[in-house]
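lol so apparently i was supposed to do this last week
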Amino acid sequence: MEQIIVKRKPRKCPKCKGDVYEILFGEPICSEKEMFKRTGKHYIFYGCIISDNDPNWACSKCGQEFRKE
Ligand SMILES: [Zn+2]
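anyway here it is w/ zinc ion bound
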């Protein structure tokens, strides 16, 4: 999927109007739900896929990825 390059985190996905969440990389310490309970923030866990152009945020509905400019 093509990433969308943005200056800052979009509030809503421009494609489906879904909520856009911050992506966390690495081994998750708990579930996404548990993380929300703990931090009050929604995250999407991406596991250990580290590349040169990792996205910073992703749409919770359609999975559209966003990367900081
Ligand atoms: Zn979307």
